Amino acid sequence: MAGGWSLWVAAGLLLMAAELLLPGIFLVWVGAAALGTGLVLAVMPLGLLATAILFILTLAAAIALGLRFRPSSSNGLNTPGAGLVGRTGTLLEGDRARIGDSDWPVRGQGTTAPGAAVRVVAVEGTTLVVRALPPPARAAEPGAASAPSPGPSPS
Fold first, then answer.
1. Quick one: pLDDT band at residue 54, thresholds 50, 70, 90?
2. Residue ranges of the domains in the chain?
């Protein structure tokens, strides 16, 4: 079959175009393998068995290449620490803390009493590592003498 290479190239281009409609990064590798097979057949005609082996080897190489240069999936999405580290909460009794609307087992850095404000600094399994926050500055008590505020200056 003298024009068989053009069928492989056309199939490769169609599969790669189909990847745009059905994203999943799979058809692109099959299309690349078909395109590569077609280009080799354009230069050197092969029999049916040799063409099938060439396609399988090209497909394996395309998938291996795609996996090698795949972006890292360590973005923290769907990991317990992704939304908890840096959040603040209230320490409860019995090594637990309320962070948002959930109670979590905690291991503290420093000793604090229940009711103290804590910040999540790390996640170890299902246990949060928390650090006590400094207590908020106390407001002046009512009736206490305070420094007079500077008023408008007499002119």
1. very high
2. 4-68, 81-132
